[in-house]
Amino acid sequence: MFIAMNRFKVLKGSEQDFETIWRSRETHLGEMPGFIVFHLLKGPEREDHVLYSSHTMWRSYEDFEAWTKSEQFRKAHARAGGNKPLYLGHPEFEGFTVLLEEKPDGTRVTAAA
User: Fold this and answer.
1) In sequence order, what are the residues at sequence separation of 6 or more whose Cβ sits closer than 8 angstroms to the Cβ of residue 65?
2) How confident is the model at residue 77, as a pLDDT?
3) 3-class SS at 92?
4) How far apart are CA 52 and CA 19, in angstroms?
5) What is the DSSP letter of 35?
6) pLDDT (tens digit, 9 = 90+) per residue, 42-85?
7) Strands 100-102 and 108-110, how do they pair?
8) CA distance linking residue 98 with residue 76, whole number of Å
9) Domain range summary for the chain, segments of one domain joined by +
10) Per-residue model confidence (pLDDT) at position 13
């Protein structure tokens, strides 16, 4: 499993506009093989910004990589450049390979390191 995250430092006062953009956009994620789930996360408030993160889970890194090279990715990100005035700097990408997963019943799934 692979987790892809982008962190956004949203300017104070722009939170509602930022959230509206995400709620109203077409993501095309559901069209992609290996896509599991998407979350938009709201984090702590700082002096000049509020931290947000977009979080997607994929069956594998290869599925995520296919998404980044797809027509669906291009369509989903077509208007992203116009949103820059809402946040400080560029989004910060972080990608993680899941090594250990624990389920509610206590079972653990371990991936090769």
Assistant:
1) none
2) 74
3) strand
4) 9
5) E
6) 999 999 999 999 999 999 999 999 999 999 988 887 766 666 67
7) antiparallel
8) 25
9) 2-110
10) 93
Query: Has residue 113 got a pLDDT over 60?
Result: no
* Helix intervals (H) in 1-113: 15-24, 61-68, 71-76
> Residue 25: is it exposed, middle or buried by C-beta count within 10 angstroms (0-12/13-18/19+)?
middle
What CATH number belongs to 2-110? Answer: 3.30.70.100
User: Is the distance from CB of 27 to CB of 76 less than 8 angstroms?
Assistant: yes
Classified as helix, coil or strand, 86 is helix
Nearest to 93 by CA among 78, 79, 77, 72: 77
Query: Nearest Cα to 41, choosing from 52, 57, 27, 49?
Result: 52
Reduced to 3 states (helix: H, G, I; strand: E, B; else coil), residue 24 is helix
Question: Length of the chain in residues, anyone?
Answer: 113
Q: Which residue bears the tokens 């996360």?
A: 41
